[in-house]
Amino acid sequence: MTSAPNPNITRLLLEWSGGNEAALENLFPLVYEELRVIAQNHLRRERSSHTLQRTALVHEAFLRLVDQQSVTWQSRAHFFALASQMMRRILVDHARRRGAAKRGPDAVKVDLDSVLDEAPSDLDFEEFDQVLKRFETLEPRSGRLVELRFFGGLNIEEAAGVLEISVATAKRDWAVARAWLQRELTRA
User: Which CATH code of 3.30.1450, 1.10.10, 1.10.1740, 3.20.20 fits the domain covering 1-99?
Assistant: First the structure.
């Protein structure tokens, strides 16, 4: 992520979960820049002509997070992981509304490692999301790891912390996920 964790974020999340609405007002300025970084990580994987802007994505995700009644916030990492997941849903919904083309003979062949480093501008975001959803049904923890790394921009150590697994386990899960997703995304 961007900087050292701010312990006030966790405190404010817990206060907000306890019903303190003022905590929410104090929370937004503390999380805003980090949410913008997460949004940028999501948007850099989108086509260059994408119409949703980073600020709009941040605000939409935050509004949806605020509207979550059943969430008991556990930590800063929990909040940012959920924010990243919310941004993913927003982008997929946006792609669907824009009438994203179905996979065809001109489908882009994707190298997952290069996607994580620097996504091709013509990556079919909706297709990647569908493939990832299939993978998540088979390997929920590994699927979550991919989501945290691909969409959340977390490194392997940060993702392991969010998932509460060892770094070695995260690396093994990552190797399995990468191989499976690579195979599925390059099928003809």
Answer: 1.10.1740
In the chain, which residues fall in CATH 1.10.10? 103-188
pTM of the predicted model as reported, rounded to 2 decimal places? 0.56
Cβ pair 76, 10 in contact under 8 A? yes
CATH fold of 103-188: Arc Repressor Mutant, subunit A (1.10.10)
Q: Six-digit token pair at 183?
A: 């195979």
pLDDT, tens digit (0-9, with 9 covering 90-100), for 97-129: 766 444 444 444 444 555 444 444 456 677 778
Residue with tokens 């600020």: 55
Please list, in sequence order, all residues whose beta carbon lies within 8 angstroms of the beta carbon of residue 134, skipping any fewer than 6 positions away: 184
Instruction: Yes or no: say if 159 and 142 are a contact pair by the CB < 8 Å rule.
Output: no
